[in-house]
Design a protein that fits this description.
The complex is a heterodimer of chains A (112) and B (112). Chain A is mostly beta strands. Chain A is built from no helices and eleven strands. At the A-B interface, strand 5, strand 9 and strand 10 of A face strand 4, strand 5 and strand 9 of B.
């Protein structure tokens, strides 16, 4: 079955450490996105990529980095520069305009 | 102009009632309006979507009503069930854009 796989489901990080969240899709979608969701809050865009080797900052990119070396993969690194990283992180992909997004099941990151 | 304003923030309805969630936008270039349903700890899932050339679209118990002149669209859930309890997000996009603009979400509770 086609879909988006995010791993791990839960992640714990010590303050000052970088951590990388995985996102893989087998939908053959060109566009991929990373969102952050805080409890009871909406979706805030971190980064997005429309094609391989190209990506753009979203609304809250500070303290995060991404890469898009393969069409299927769009990993997100939460760096130590991110002051409040504890959140639910969602990856999504899209075929393009008019098709909507397919979301992964999310990674819950907790800083301990 | 890129915002989508969603209301109410939370909504409690008795089983069998018809919850209505409203969204308003300013950018008249928007021409794709999806709704997403998110259960706790899961990623959002596309529920139903509409384009402005129609005023209403139904899929099962879910209906989108669209008022182009008022720049508003709404989600109605007929014969609501406790299993419909979730957070609902409206969104909007425009031709050529690769990003959706999301509303802030509505937490819906259907009481038995």
């Amino acid at each position: 079955d086609g879909g988006i796989t995010q791993s791990p489901k839960y992640l714990f990080r010590k303050e000052g450490q970088n951590v990388t969240l995985s996102c893989e899709q087998n939908l053959n979608h060109d566009a991929m996105y990373w969102y952050r969701q805080d409890p009871g809050q909406g979706l805030r865009l971190i980064y997005y990529s429309q094609i391989v080797n190209d990506f753009q900052k979203g609304d809250i990119a500070e303290g995060y980095s991404v890469s898009r070396e393969k069409k299927e993969s769009f990993p997100l690194t939460v760096t130590s520069a991110q002051k409040n990283p504890t959140a639910f992180y969602l990856c999504a992909s899209s075929m393009g305009f008019g098709y909507g997004y397919t979301f992964g099941s999310g990674t819950r990151l907790t800083v301990v | 102009q890129q915002q989508v304003k969603q209301s109410p923030q939370s909504l409690i309805v008795q089983k069998g009632g018809i919850p209505i969630i409203n969204c308003a936008y300013e950018n008249t270039a928007f021409d794709y309006f999806p709704w997403y349903q998110q259960f706790p700890g899961k990623g959002p899932a596309l529920l139903i979507a509409i384009r402005p050339d129609v005023s209403e679209k139904k899929e099962g118990r879910f209906t989108i009503s669209f008022n182009k002149s008022a720049k508003q669209f709404s989600l109605h859930i007929m014969d609501s069930q406790p299993g419909d309890s979730a957070t609902y997000f409206c969104a909007a996009s425009m031709l050529g854009a690769q990003k959706l603009v999301f509303g802030q979400g509505t937490r819906l509770t259907i009481n038995p």
